[in-house]
Write a structure and sequence with these properties.
One of its GO terms (cellular component) is phagophore assembly site. By secondary structure, the protein is mainly beta. It has a single domain (7-257, 276-325), classed as YVTN repeat-like/Quinoprotein amine dehydrogenase (Methylamine Dehydrogenase, Chain H). The chain is 1% helix and 44% strand. The chain has one helix spanning 273-276, and strands spanning 6-10, 14-19, 22-28, 34-37, 48-52, 64-69, 81-86, 93-96, 100-104, 108-113, 120-125, 134-136, 144-148, 154-159, 172-175, 181-186, 192-197, 202-207, 213-218, 226-231, 237-242, 246-251, 279-280, 283-286, 293-300, 305-313, 319-324. Strands 16-17-18-19-23 form a 5-stranded mixed β-sheet, with no helix packed on it. A hairpin with a 5-residue loop joins strand 16 (181-186) and strand 17 (192-197).
Length: 336
C-alpha cells in the first residue's frame, strides 16, 4: 500500500499482510492453495494484491506482474488472479493507488491506468535502479511520483495528474546526493520527499512544490545501508532503519526537538562543519543488526501518540515486532 498502513511479508509459498502491524491475512500460494482471512476488506482500501515472481524457486516469472482479487469467488487460487502484465525484463517493484499502477524495472518506470481496462499512460527512463526504488503519493489531491533521475544521485518528480498521457514532458530533477541513492520516500500529502544515498550517513528532505532542500538529517558518521525511510501520518516525525541495527527518529514539525552537536557552539571549521550543520535524531532504539528491519509509524490510541513499529526477521525465520512510543520523553538534552 502506498499509504504506509500495510506491510507485506513475502515467504517462499505465501504472503502475509499486516495492517497497522497486526497480522490479518495469509495468502498461501502452495500446491494446495489456501486463503485465510480475518477481514475480507484490507483496511477499507482494496481487495487487490499485486504479486511479482522471483526468488530461487519462483512460482511466477520475474517478468510478470499478477493481480490477486480477494473479493473474487472461487475455490482455486488461480481463479483469483484476474490480471497479468508481462515485460521483457524483471519487474523489481510495484506501486499502486486507486487509479494507477506503477511498474519499476532496472532502467524504466511504466505507469498504467488501473484497475479497469489497464492501458499504458507513461514511460520514464531512469538511472540504474537494481533495488526498484520509487514512491507514489496516495493522496487524492496529488498524484506525485518520485523515482531515480538520469544521473547518479538525482531524483525525478512528476505529477501524473497534470501530465498528459503520451506526451514527452520531462519530469523535474533534484540533485539530491553525490553518490547513488539507496532509499527514497514521500510523505502522505506528497509535499516532502526524503532520500538517503548509498553512504547512508545523511537524509535529505526536499519541498516538492519548490524543489528546495528543507533540512539535512544525520543518521550517523559511519557508512550504513539504509533499509527504509518513513514519515508519520501528519508528517511531524520521520523514522529510518539501517544495517547498524538502529532505528532513528527525527522531528520535522518542531525541529528544536532534534539533537545538535555541541561543536556548533565553537563555530564551523573545515573538519567539524559537515557534522555541525545537520540535525541528529531526537531518539533511537536498537534492533538486531543482522536482519533487514522495516520501521513505520502507527497510532497508539491508548496513549494518543505516534508509535514507531520495527519489524524484522530473526535467523530462524521468526518475524519479530517491537514498539517504541516513549521517544518524546527522552529528548531533554538538545546538544551532545
Amino acid at each position: 500500500m502506498t499509504d504506509k498502513n500495510c506491510i507485506y511479508l513475502k515467504c517462499t509459498t505465501c504472503f502475509d499482510i499486516c495492517i497497522h502491524c497486526e497480522m490479518i491475512t495469509t495468502i498461501n500460494l502452495g500446491e494446495r492453495a489456501r486463503l485465510r482471512l480475518k477481514n475480507k476488506q484490507i483496511n477499507k482500501q482494496t481487495n487487490l494484491l499485486v504479486l511479482v515472481g522471483g526468488s530461487s524457486s519462483p512460482k511466477f516469472s520475474e517478468i510478470s506482474v499478477l493481480i490477486w482479487d480477494d473479493a473474487r469467488e472461487g475455490k482455486d487460487s488461480k481463479e483469483k488472479l484476474v490480471l497479468e502484465f508481462t515485460f521483457t525484463k524483471p519487474v523489481l517493484s510495484v506501486l499502486m493507488r486507486h487509479d494507477k499502477i506503477v511498474m519499476v524495472l532496472k532502467n524504466r518506470i511504466c505507469v498504467y491506468s488501473f484497475p479497469d481496462n489497464p492501458r499504458k499512460l507513461f514511460e520514464f527512463d531512469t538511472w540504474d535502479n537494481p533495488k526498484g526504488l520509487c514512491d507514489l503519493c496516495p493522496s487524492l489531491e496529488k498524484q506525485l511520483l518520485v523515482f531515480l533521475g538520469h544521473k547518479c544521485g538525482s531524483l525525478q518528480l512528476v505529477d501524473l495528474a497534470s501530465t498528459m498521457p503520451g506526451t514527452s514532458s520531462a519530469p523535474f530533477t533534484i540533485n539530491a546526493h553525490q553518490s547513488d541513492i539507496a532509499c527514497v520516500s514521500l510523505n502522505q500529502p506528497g509535499t516532502v520527499v526524503a532520500s538517503a544515498s548509498q553512504k547512508g550517513t545523511l537524509i535529505h528532505l526536499f519541498d516538492t512544490p519548490s524543489k528546495e532542500k528543507l533540512v539535512e538529517l544525520r543518521r550517523g558518521t559511519d557508512p550504513a545501508t539504509v533499509y527504509c525511510i518513513n514519515f508519520s501520518h501528519d508528517s511531524s516525525f520521520l523514522c529510518t532503519s539501517s544495517d547498524k541495527g538502529t532505528v532513528h527518529i527525527f522531528a520535522l514539525k518542531d525541529t528544536r526537538l532534534n539533537r545538535r552537536s555541541a561543536l556548533a557552539r565553537c563555530g564551523q571549521g573545515p573538519i567539524t562543519g559537515q557534522y555541525v550543520d545537520p540535525q541528529w535524531s531526537l531518539a533511537s532504539f536498537t534492533v538486531p543488526a543482522e536482519p533487514a528491519c522495516m520501521c513505520v509509524f502507527c497510532r497508539n490510541t491508548s496513549k494518543n501518540v505516534n508509535c514507531v513499529i520495527a519489524i524484522f526477521f530473526t535467523p530462524d525465520g521468526n518475524c519479530n515486532r517491537e514498539a517504541f512510543d516513549a521517544y518524546l520523553d527522552i529528548c531533554d538534552d538538545d546538544d551532545f
